[in-house]
# Entry
Amino acid sequence: MKKGVKRFSVSVPPELLEDFDAIIKKLGQDRSKAIQQSMRLFISEYTWREETSECAGALVLVYDHEVHEAEESLTDLQHEFREIINSTLHVHIDERNCLEILALRGKVERVKELINRISVCRGVKQIRHTVIELSN
# Structure
């Protein structure tokens, strides 16, 4: 494997570059390091989806617990996928909304299936995930 660095140019809208530079300045980073981190995150985000191996990560969702059967549906799904859910944190945001964080580890296919099934549940307002492929 060849060591060193490769230089390349990228074309972006001026506003995007201004926002990017403002954030990296606040963080005390330089543009090259920030782009490298962004590229690694991008690769990690999409590589795990194609693999048939194991992965680990977190699934974060916000749902309205006053929507009929929202809590029951989510609880039933968590029991159905208990082999990949290691832990759950439940936070009451306000009178209606709850935040749940699920720690996951298991086969990529099962993690994808869980994400898809939760995303279509009634009452789920927002869902985000961060998943990484586990090396064997």
